[in-house]
C-alpha cells in the first residue's frame, strides 16, 4: 500500500499480486476484521476500504505486493489524508481505514498490472 500527493487530490494505492475480485469504498466507520473492534482514525471523516481479497493465501504467502501494507503510512503534510490504517483480513476480505479532513468527493477504480497483478486506487479530492 502506498500514498501520494497530487495537485487536486491525495491518492492511496493497494497493490495486489493478482486481479482484484471486488471492492467497497465508502464513508463509514472502520472496524477490525474478525473482532469488529472500532478503529478510531484521525480526521473529520472515515473512509472504509474493503478489498475482496485475503491478505494471505492458503500457503501463508502475502497476496499484497509489497507486504509492507501492515505498517503505518506517514501522511503528514497531505492536503486531505490524516491517517491510513490496516484493519485486518478475515474470511476473504481485507479492510483499510483512511482518515480524511472532511467528507470530500472521492473515486475508486482498478488498474491492471504490474504483470498479472492489479491495483486498487482511491483518490480523495482536496476540495469540493
Overall tally of structural domains: 1
Level-2 CATH architecture: Sandwich
Helix share, percent: under 10%
Q: What oligomeric arrangement do these chains adopt?
A: single chain
Helix count, DSSP H or I runs of 4 or more residues: 0
- Rg value: 14 Å
What pattern of helices and strands is seen along the backbone?
EEEEEEEE
Question: How would you summarize the topology of this molecule?
Answer:
Blueprint: E1 2-5, E2 9-16, E3 23-27, E4 45-51, E5 81-90, E6 93-100, E7 106-112, E8 118-125
Antiparallel strand pairs: 1-2, 2-8, 3-4, 4-6, 5-6, 7-8
Question: What this model shows, in words?
Answer:
The protein has no helices and 8 strands. The protein is an all-beta fold and 128 residues long. It has one domain: Immunoglobulin-like, CATH 2.60.40.3500. The strands form 2 sheets. A 4-stranded antiparallel β-sheet has the order 1-2-8-7, with no helix packed on it. It has a 4-stranded antiparallel β-sheet with strand order 3-4-6-5, with no helix packed on it. This is AMIN-like domain-containing protein. Residues 1-126 form the AMIN-like domain. It holds the Pfam family AMIN-like.
